[in-house]
Amino acid sequence: MSEMDKETPFNHRQDLRLGAALREVLAPGEAGPFVARVLARYDAARAMPRAWDVLASWGRRGVAVAAVAALAAGLLVGRVMRPASGSIEDALGSPSGTSLPPSALLAAQQPPEASAAFASLIER
Amino acid sequence: MSRKAQPPDQAARTEGGDETAQVTRVLAGDREAFGALVERYQAQARRVARAVLGDPDEADDAAQDAFLSALVKLEQYDPRRPFGPWLMRIVANAATDRRRRRAVRRVEPLDVGLVGGGPRPDREAERSALGDRLRTALAELPERRRMAVTLFDVEGYSHAEIAEILGIPEGTVRSEVFHARRRLRMLLADWKEEA
Question: How many C-alpha atoms does B163 have within 13 Å on its Cβ side?
Fold first, then answer.
């Protein structure tokens, strides 16, 4: 080999003879069939749904099911926690003295005076 | 880095602007652009894979995997940088992964078309024998050394580019190329003397 005597690790030139010999040894087959095989795999990969799309469709269904389940659970819990009987009037208690009872305040056509509403609460 | 003498495939990777446009088209889902990119780099990718794997069919499988892997990763490619080294890194990884997956190391089969058949002219026989010898010598080198010398002397990449492809320091690339060349030349010199 002609460049053997001047070979050092700092030699940045290609050895064209060695390169040509290696190129021949490593020579691949025809390009056409290889490219066709790669493109066939490309087509197959594009025809398949993408993993993220599949997961997204599962996710959408999952969110819908979870929303329905949460609603049903909320209704169920609400039903269980609700007091057996009673009204707002019971909750506020019976009025005493001269002020109006709370039911009267709620049923009135006109909004009550603020002082009357406060009085009914303070008297409790 | 000097690149005075470029192998024929080097012309393909110097068309930077054209290549960037092609990559953009591939990203947009252009099948023909992908085909053109594969056509442009197939020989180089298959040679590099063969330098790692030895067996041409296995090398082709690795190169195919690499092209499809590159397609998936194409959004990560920086168009300001040359496409060749980026692709060759994927090819080298695909070939190395495939070799690691091989349960049993197989001896590289000899090319039946070269060793078999009837009598052939002396010159052709000599070339064939040289090829066999070189193939065996290449197979005896450590994998990284094989890749380094192939990328440098066959594909014309610079030391810096090979360092990027193989993920090793540039000085190590120089050393690998140096030792690979020395070994290959020694084996070839022996063969010439025997002949």
Answer: 12
Residue A95 gets the label, from left (phi > 0), alpha (psi -120 to 50) or beta, of beta
B40 at the A interface (CB within 8 A)?
no
What torsion, rounded to 10 degrees, do the Cα atoms B15, B16, B18, B23 define?
130
How many CB atoms within 10 Å of residue B79? 15
Residue B100 CA: distances (Å) to CA of A55, B86, B97 = 32, 21, 5
Best of A16, A25, A39 to mutate (most B CBs within 10 Å, chain B): A25
DSSP classification of residue B167: T
* Both structure tokens of B167: 């993920």
- Pair of tokens at residue A31: 């390009």
Token reading at B194: 């025997």
Would you give the DSSP letter of residue B155?
Answer: T
CA distance, residue B141 to nearest chain A CA (Å): 13
Q: What is the largest CA-CA distance in chain A?
A: 123
| A110/B103 Cα distance (integer angstroms) | 91
Q: What is the pTM of this model?
A: 0.66
> Can you tell me the distance from the alpha carbon of B150 to that of A23, in angstroms, rounded to the nearest whole number?
8
Q: Other CB atoms closer than 10 Å to residue B60's CB: what's the count?
A: 22
Least confident of A25-39, B77-91, B179-193: B179-193
Please say whether the dihedral angle defined by the alpha carbons of residues A10, A12, A16 and A20, taken in this order, is positive or negative: positive
Residues of B in contact with A27 (CB under 8 A): 47
- Rounded Cα–Cα distance for residues A117 and A100 (Å): 8
DSSP 3-state of B19: helix
Whether the CB-CB separation of B169 and A60 falls below 8 Å is answered with no
Task: Please report the ipTM that was assigned to this predicted complex.
Answer: 0.78
Contact A42 B178 (CB under 8 A): no
Question: Closest Cα of chain B to A48: distance in Å?
Answer: 14
Which pLDDT value is given to residue A46? Answer: 84
How far is it, in rounded angstroms, from Cα B42 to Cα B47? 8
Q: Is the dihedral of CA B78, B79, B83, B85 positive or negative?
A: negative
